[in-house]
Design brief:
Radius of gyration: 24 Å
Distance between the termini: 66 Å
Mean pLDDT: 84
Number of strands: 24
Helix content: 10-25%
Number of helices: 7
Low-confidence stretches: 3-7, 366-375
Largest sheet: 5 strands, antiparallel
């Protein structure tokens, strides 16, 4: 043995890659976006709990999975605001996990849910309420004129990006019966202000429903259904800040629902008899846009049910991130994935109510973790 080898100090143990908190955060960010992921990671040790409970980590986790958000369930409003879970244990979120604290007995109209936020119109107060079901945070915003008219049928949508949110309100203004217009206005939480009013003419008979007509985000535009002598679609372009009315290729009347296509474009589904037709809007090489029939789904065969002897079918909800529709039949409420055609029966009901999807990742803060383990898991 040489002198140099005798003097060599024993080598220290090699550091684990998980000792690097930056690397550990990158690993944790790639956990599956299921509700049990972050609460379970936070229960592993205090160090992991500290990392995944930070607000900055959860914002990054939401962005990491923004195109792969799990469908936690649906909110239904016929008997108060009730949460209907859709996942199985251990990711099934208990209905009591989400509870909207309301002031008194104010009337409210559900307008839609997106990016983990719920938009609610309070007609008696002439306000919209932006509610975060995960944190319980509420933001009340007075609606701008002319949305403050008591007779106005208001609809809208909420969007969130990098911790800030926007509210888009739309309405059909028929104050002048000969010149009916659609109006839109955008609120930014960044400035706390409403933007300029945007308008476009619409057919005199066109109606913009407040209920059963939540917006669909496809590309850079929001879309709502217009009803009247013919069904149409109202588009609000978020980039151009403009409104456009789009005609439909078939007379769908009440039995159509705007959807997002597989490539993220605009589509719609309509039910005729006991089949569903999926249409999509295409632009050809000459920049001409038209509707194309994608495919037809025989719902009776899909469900293996004898539908013809048991009433009509109705679309009662649509989850745009997961491309899932809720279809009501006399046999129960079914959830159908429009790409894979996989379906699941949720429950039996004779109550026709619209269901608003809640698509979001689940936080891992200490309070959220405690509530999750108390209420968040239902045994299969």
């Amino acid at each position: 043995m040489t002198l140099a080898s005798r003097r060599r100090c024993p080598s220290s143990p090699a550091a684990s890659p998980l000792d690097d908190e930056n690397l550990l955060c990158e690993i944790l960010l790639r956990l599956p976006p299921q509700p049990s992921s972050l609460p379970r990671a936070s229960a592993f040790c205090k160090r992991w709990r500290r990392l995944v409970s930070e607000a900055g980590f959860f914002r990054r986790f939401r962005l990491q999975h923004c195109r792969n958000l799990p469908l936690l369930g649906f909110f239904e409003g016929s008997k108060g605001l009730t949460f209907v879970p859709t996942l199985e244990a251990p990711n099934r979120v208990h209905p009591r996990r989400f509870s909207l604290q309301r002031d008194g007995t104010d009337q409210y109209i559900l307008l839609g849910c997106r990016h983990g936020l719920f938009l609610i119109f309070l007609p008696e107060r002439l306000q919209v309420l932006v509610w975060d079901p995960l944190t319980g945070d509420q933001n009340r915003i007075a609606v701008p004129a002319p949305f403050g008219r008591r007779s106005a049928n208001i609809n809208g949508a909420v969007l969130r990006d990098a911790g800030r949110f926007q509210v888009v309100l739309v309405m059909a203004d028929d104050h002048d019966k000969q010149n009916v217009r659609a109006l839109a206005c955008v609120y930014s939480s960044n400035t706390g202000l409403w933007g300029d009013l945007v308008s476009t003419p619409i057919p005199n008979q066109a109606k913009l429903r407040s209920c059963w007509n939540d917006a669909v985000l496809a590309g850079d535009s929001l879309y709502w259904g217009l009803w009247g002598d013919l069904a149409r679609i109202l588009e609000f372009d978020l980039e151009k800040q403009s409104l456009t009315v789009i005609g439909l290729p078939v007379d769908t009347r009440d039995f159509f629902r705007i959807t997002r296509t597989e490539d993220g474009g605009l589509g719609f589904i309509c039910i005729s008899e006991y089949s569903a037709q999926l249409w999509k809007r295409k632009t050809d090489c000459d920049c001409v846009t038209s509707w194309v029939l994608g495919r037809t789904i025989e719902l009776g065969k899909l469900f293996s049910l004898k539908l013809r002897q048991n009433g009509n079918l109705m679309i009662l909800g649509y989850a745009e991130e997961n491309n899932v529709v809720l279809v009501w039949t006399m046999y129960g409420l079914f959830m159908i994935h429009l790409e894979s055609l996989k379906f699941k029966k949720l429950f039996e009901t004779m109550t026709l109510s619209y269901y608003y999807p809640f698509e979001s990742v689940f936080p891992a803060g200490y309070v959220s973790m405690c509530v999750f383990f108390k209420y968040g898991v239902e045994q299969a």
